[in-house]
Automatic annotation (TrEMBL):
<protein>
    <recommendedName>
        <fullName>Thiamine phosphate synthase/TenI domain-containing protein</fullName>
    </recommendedName>
</protein>
<feature type="domain" description="Thiamine phosphate synthase/TenI">
    <location>
        <begin position="7"/>
        <end position="201"/>
    </location>
</feature>
Length: 225
């Protein structure tokens, strides 16, 4: 079945975003609310803890028939049988990850410009994470804030037949801006396949409600804005 990227949850385990909530419960709630794909992103745990938490999250995503991707750590994805990985520009290269995880794995790559996007597309990435769209406290020191203009530049190339692949935007996205971003990504391009969020769901007091609200907005973008 084709992967549904429409509401893409990236997790965060830091107290500033997760608060005192329990990550597996938040992921479960987000899935109830309508998240379609989950990336386990954890920049501080060691490998053993990543595997332990990855296994717990995978049990939950499997129950909802939703893919689990692991940020950065191809070995962790392999160890827990996750559906794939998400790789930044400084992570393991795409070809090596593909060799390790096999042809069925979902391998996503971050791109902040047209060059990175085309390289990932021609290297066999399954989707592109385009960003950082807007400045966000969730990820400091991002090298580039590209805005909707940068997003449209990338989509223009990724809409061409020889580079076609699904795209999600990330960075500072929430219920107040996603309809505008989705709308502006369209025409003359194919437009985005999904919206990726961290804090809009993970930091929410009620992650299920937050996911459901984002879900409704994504599913009901007006024809003009
Ligand atoms: N990559 C680019 S921005 C970002 C990542 C992981 C963080 C996005 O977080 P938020 O809270 O959705 O702005
Ligand atoms: Mg990375």
């Amino acid at each position: 079945m084709a992967t549904d990227y429409s509401l893409y949850l990236v997790t965060d385990s830091t107290p500033a975003i997760l608060g005192d909530k329990d990550l597996p419960s938040v992921v479960e709630a987000a899935l109830q609310g309508g998240v379609t794909i989950v990336q386990y992103r954890d920049k501080s745990s060691d490998t053993a803890d990543l595997i332990r938490m990855g296994e717990r999250l995978h049990a939950i995503t499997k129950k909802h028939n939703v893919p689990l991707l692991i940020n950065d750590h191809v070995g962790v994805a392999q160890a827990i049988g996750a559906e794939g990985v998400h790789l930044g520009q400084d992570d393991m290269d795409l070809q090596t990850a593909r060799r390790i995880l096999g042809p069925e794995a979902i391998i996503g790559v971050s791109a902040s410009n047209v060059f990175e996007a085309i390289e990932a597309a021609s290297g066999g990435a399954n989707y592109l994470g385009i960003g950082t769209l807007y400045a966000t406290p969730t990820k400091e020191n991002t090298k580039s804030i590209i805005g909707t203009a940068g997003l449209r530049d990338i989509l223009q190339f990724i809409s061409k037949p020889y580079h076609k692949l699904p795209t999600v935007a990330i960075g500072g996205l929430n219920d107040s801006n996603i309809q505008r971003v989705i709308f502006q990504s369209k025409s003359p391009n194919k437009g985005l396949d999904g919206i990726a969020v961290v804090s809009a769901i993970i930091a929410a007091a009620d992650p299920e409600d937050a996911a459901a609200a984002l879900r409704r907005l994504i599913d009901n973008v007006p024809p003009t804005l």
